[in-house]
Amino acid sequence: MKTPREILFQRHQTAESKLDTVRCEVLSAEFVRGGRRVADTASLPSLLWRELVWPCRRIWTGLAAAWIFILAVNFSIEDKSEIVAQKSSTPEMIMTWQQQERVLAELIGPNEARAAVSPKPFSPRPSSERFFETLVV
Amino acid sequence: MLVVAEPEQLPVLQARAGEPAAWDTLFRRYQLPLYVYVFELVHDEQASLDLVQETFIAAVRHIGGLRDEARFGSWLFGISHQKCIQQWRKQNREELLRDEIADTPDEFDDGPDDLLIRREQETEFMNLLNQLLLPQRSVLLLHFVEDFSLEEIARITETQIGTVKSRLHYAKKSLRKLLEKKK
């Protein structure tokens, strides 16, 4: 009696020599002789890409998509406000606005003059003094 | 008799540091189990050797992505599983990856060696294994070849633990049923 594992390994035992070749090929291709991996001495951007970006590529893609969406929305809003500003700054609009400003200044003018007169300061006095004041008047 | 090294004895830290000798030890340990897993899924000798090679290269290049050294084995099988999926996609066999699982069994305590096969049943066992749907076969192979836990198989195959549980349960059940019929 054998376990499934034993059957499976026995069946593929002949592939060992080919797998040894594969292993040696990978090791010789990926490592410099007697040293460390060639890629380990690679430049910082590639190292950052491999260690930081690539393992979480889905998250980075999602974040990038979100930012692109936000920027697109932001740009579309800015465009609209620019159009409104352009429309409002036509010469006719400026003339009308200046005219309205003048009319407003004329209307507000007298009120401002009245407001300029300083009110009489209030000084509390005894009620006996107020009686003489009334008599004199 | 195959001697399986304990995960803590494997020189994963040294491999991470870029020592070729450590990588050699790791590749020696996993080359046959990986080949068995890949071959039983793709059924092509050259393609299987290529996939093992690609798995090894990816492991060396992306060892920085491994968070837990104790999980090196399942991490390596996860890479080869993804390579197999890419291979199936090339062959337009995506529909074979889908299967319908009715429900999840309540209890699961079967070990990988609880299924014992007689010498005269060996060929029959292999034929029956190949009749299983790809997802079920994949889960069963991971269970047989490396005795991975349900959590590890779920991580390797990127599926829910309940799905793994039911796939394994029904694969073993159907295998047992077929073996009993042939007695």
Describe the protein's architecture and organization.
- The complex is a heterodimer of chains A (137) and B (183).
- Chain A has 137 residues and is mainly α.
- Chain A is 74% helix and 0% strand.
- Chain A is built from 6 helices and no strands.
- Chain A has helices at residues 4-11, 16-30, 44-53, 57-88, 91-116, 127-136.
- The radius of gyration of chain A is 44 Å and the shape is elongated.
- The termini of chain A are far apart.
- The mean pLDDT of chain A is 76.
- Chain B contains 8 helices and no strands.
- In chain B, helix 2 (20-42) runs antiparallel to helix 3.
- The two termini of chain B are 27 Å apart.
- Chain B folds into 2 domains: 7-94, Orthogonal Bundle (Rna Polymerase Sigma Factor, Chain: A), CATH 1.10.1740.10; 98-182, Winged helix-like DNA-binding domain superfamily/Winged helix DNA-binding domain (Arc Repressor Mutant, subunit A, Orthogonal Bundle), CATH 1.10.10.10.
- The mean pLDDT of chain B is 84.
- At the A-B interface, helix 1 and helix 2 of A face helix 2, helix 3, helix 5 and helix 6 of B.
